[in-house]
Specification:
- There is one protein chain.
- By secondary structure, this protein is α/β, with parallel strands linked by helices.
- The protein has one domain: Alpha-Beta Barrel (TIM Barrel), CATH 3.20.20.
- Helix content is 41%, strand content 11%.
- Strands 1-2-3-4-5 form a five-stranded parallel β-sheet.
- Strand 1, helix 2 and strand 2 form a beta-alpha-beta unit.
- Helix 1 crosses helix 2 and helix 8 packs parallel to helix 9.
- The longest helix is centred in the middle third of the chain and has 17 residues.
Length: 258
């Protein structure tokens, strides 16, 4: 629900349009719907609480009727608290759950899960990359330290997902390195990976238009499919077709249903 989202075709301008798009994505086979009202693309403009709520709540009024789990993409605990009336499953905070307000919400709502993302000093997290240190070590140490700190507050580790923050304050080479070593970052814990249509994929293939980067997105999915728990995409139909074909071929089947 942002007019400045980096992927033009992913933008929606009204609650009605958002609901219609959500229905299309649901029909295409999405497992959960991630909704954000503040863009966190490079150079984004932070939103006030009032603007973010004004964009988000009317959409939730409609899409909460659909039979799909909801994830709320926000850096603002106040926005997340207001969203709890719609029973979302996940806090998708690009700031690593560093704001204690998110942890208070997780304590209050026992079924709420939280995403811990490494922001690498991109403007969405206080955490910075260490100069001269391998990016995998930097990300792994940060995710591990957040796991320890959050667990010490009494929130079970089973309620956390971890996101290496691909494209957030990282070079193309660092993004590639993190993807190649994704299973080493926080072994034994679920990874949420968001690479869909991102700029580094365009830099690899010299594709400037985000909407033309879906094949590149699927190339990443092919590499890490067995190593991640959630893949965040724009092209649900293509990703589901990939998943079904991958599973069918892996199982030696001629057909694999949804």
């Amino acid at each position: 629900m942002t007019p400045d989202s980096f992927s033009h075709l992913s933008r929606v301008t009204s609650p009605k349009e958002a609901f219609e798009k959500a229905q299309i994505l649901l029909d295409a086979g999405m497992d959960m719907l991630d909704i954000g009202a503040e863009s966190t693309r490079p150079g984004f403009t932070p939103m006030t609480t009032e603007i973010e709520l004004g964009r988000l709540l009317p959409v939730l009024d409609l899409v909460a009727r659909l039979p799909v789990a909801l994830s709320i993409d926000t850096r603002n605990p106040v926005v997340m608290e207001r969203s709890m009336a719609y029973s979302p499953l996940i806090i998708n905070d690009t700031g690593g759950l560093e704001d204690d307000g998110f942890l208070l919400l997780m304590k209050k709502h026992a079924n709420l899960l939280g995403v811990v993302m490494h922001g690498a000093g991109s403007g969405v997290s206080h955490h910075k990359k260490e100069i001269g240190r391998p990016v995998t070590e930097s990300v792994s140490d940060y995710l591990g330290s957040r796991l320890k700190e959050i667990s010490e507050t009494g929130i079970g580790a089973e309620r956390l997902l971890f996101d290496p923050g691909i494209g957030f304050g990282k070079t193309t080479e660092e993004n590639i390195h993190l993807i190649r070593h994704i299973s080493e970052l926080i072994p034994g814990y679920p990874i949420l990976l968001g690479v869909s249509r991102k700029r580094f994929l365009g830099e690899i293939t010299r594709e400037e238009i985000p909407e033309n980067r879906d094949p590149q997105t699927l190339a990443v999915l092919a590499l890490v499919f067995r190593k991640i728990s959630i893949f965040r995409v724009h092209d649900v139909k293509g990703a589901v077709a990939f998943r079904n074909a991958f599973n069918a071929i892996s199982a030696g089947m001629n057909h694999h249903g949804p």
